[in-house]
Amino acid sequence: MLKRRSWLGLAVALSVLPGVAPLPAQAQNNVVIFAAASLKNALDEIATAWSKETGKPMPRISYAASSALAKQIEQGAPADMFISADTDWMDHVDRKDLIRQDTRFNLLGNKIVLIAPRDSKTTVAVKQGFDLAKALAGGKLAMANVDAVPAGKYGKAALEKLGAWDGVKGNVAQAENVRAALLLVARGEAPLGIVYATDAAAEPNVKTVGDFPADSHPPIIYPAALAREPKSPDAKAFLDMLKSSKARPAFEKQGFTVLVKSASST
Q1: What is the third-level CATH fold of 4-109+221-264?
Q2: Residues of the chain with pLDDT > 70: what percent?
Q3: The dihedral formed by the CA atoms of 172, 175, 176 and 179, expressed in degrees to the nearest 10
């Protein structure tokens, strides 16, 4: 258990971590969800619908890079559940005994794509040996952190597999999460970027100019699980709802592939 001084330090840490908001005292019964930044559109819609249907308090969702969220959970952040954008960070908290293993499941799949600003004339054939450096024309390639954030790790793996990494690694603008990388391209601050297909679909100021082959990177899997000791009495009900047919349309509308079999049931 954390001592009082440790909790005070944690509150300060939560207040400054991008995407992670501190919890007010009156929100203690809300389901607290730590979720990968790329889930924002779909999960906001699902949480709103669930709250209206059940009359339960609106879930409090902190969106950030899976790496940042996992580290906060490790430090004792009061999350009821964690939805990661890769299995590595879920494995990390699992090894620390910070989730309930019996509640863990693979919820979603995704793809990574190459994007450009909406009005860009750039065209890129993403394939083995393609010249990404030439397409950048001296500009920056926007990516989530390639060493820790899932979207960045998937992107780097794909570029390495396709033989393009060495040509662009010195021109990568690394962002704290995939939505931040998306914003760099949407604002025209980077001519190209690598994000999830779902992020590209959610941002009207970018367009997809190339799809990365599925075999160029590890499978993109979003696992979900309850924390070891969830505080909200509604945490399990919300997690179960994510596996139901009620949540499926919101995920699919954003371009996710629903992996859990029970999501297709009624």
Answers
A1: D-Maltodextrin-Binding Protein; domain 2 (3.40.190)
A2: 88
A3: -130
